[in-house]
Automatic annotation (TrEMBL):
<dbReference type="Pfam" id="PF00472">
    <property type="entry name" value="RF-1"/>
</dbReference>
<protein>
    <recommendedName>
        <fullName>Peptidyl-tRNA hydrolase ArfB</fullName>
        <ecNumber>3.1.1.29</ecNumber>
    </recommendedName>
</protein>
<dbReference type="GO" id="GO:0043022">
    <property type="term" value="F:ribosome binding"/>
</dbReference>
<keyword id="KW-0810">Translation regulation</keyword>
<feature type="region of interest" description="Disordered">
    <location>
        <begin position="107"/>
        <end position="138"/>
    </location>
</feature>
<feature type="compositionally biased region" description="Basic residues">
    <location>
        <begin position="114"/>
        <end position="138"/>
    </location>
</feature>
<dbReference type="GO" id="GO:0072344">
    <property type="term" value="P:rescue of stalled ribosome"/>
</dbReference>
<dbReference type="GO" id="GO:0003747">
    <property type="term" value="F:translation release factor activity"/>
</dbReference>
<dbReference type="InterPro" id="IPR000352">
    <property type="entry name" value="Pep_chain_release_fac_I"/>
</dbReference>
<keyword id="KW-0378">Hydrolase</keyword>
<dbReference type="GO" id="GO:0006417">
    <property type="term" value="P:regulation of translation"/>
</dbReference>
<dbReference type="InterPro" id="IPR045853">
    <property type="entry name" value="Pep_chain_release_fac_I_sf"/>
</dbReference>
<comment type="similarity">
    <text>Belongs to the prokaryotic/mitochondrial release factor family.</text>
</comment>
<comment type="subunit">
    <text>Associated with 70S ribosomes and polysomes.</text>
</comment>
<dbReference type="GO" id="GO:0005737">
    <property type="term" value="C:cytoplasm"/>
</dbReference>
<keyword id="KW-0963">Cytoplasm</keyword>
<feature type="domain" description="Prokaryotic-type class I peptide chain release factors">
    <location>
        <begin position="21"/>
        <end position="37"/>
    </location>
</feature>
């Protein structure tokens, strides 16, 4: 079971985990053991709240298919249990990342002191540049 918040959890029955053979170079034992994990999670058929489902389905993420299925392949570790934990953690992080609500930015006015500093620096630069003119000899 994945616990996302106090109110939102994902039961293990909704997550399809299968063990597959890992890719890449191996050695002894590599062609006999299935240590990689293939995780599938159907967003539409899950018990997630509507807000979570809509945010995840609207996201354009490489782990989510157009049909709304999250596919994660974990093969970083040599142990099947560690790969299972890594896949579940990646699913949890994906859901939390896609459902974060950004704070609304409210524009503020510049302070009086910052306006004065800006005008003083403009005046200083203006006087410096006005002194750069050609020198006349009378």
């Amino acid at each position: 079971m994945i616990i996302l918040s106090r109110n939102v959890t994902i039961p293990d029955a909704e997550i399809d985990i299968t063990a597959i053979r890992a890719q890449g170079a191996g050695g002894q034992h590599v062609n006999k053991s299935s240590t990689a994990i293939h995780l599938r999670f159907d967003i539409r058929a899950s018990s997630l709240p509507e807000f979570y489902q809509s945010r995840m389905l609207a996201a354009s993420h490489h782990l989510i298919t157009p049909e709304g299925i999250v596919i994660i392949k974990a093969q970083e570790y040599r142990s099947q249990d560690m790969n299972r934990e890594a896949a579940l953690k990646r699913l949890e992080n994906l859901i939390l990342e896609l459902t974060v609500v950004e704070k609304v930015r409210r524009s503020t006015r510049p302070t009086l002191a910052s306006k004065k500093r800006r005008l003083e620096s403009k005046a200083r630069k203006s006087s410096t540049k006005s002194l750069r003119g050609k020198v006349r000899s009378d």
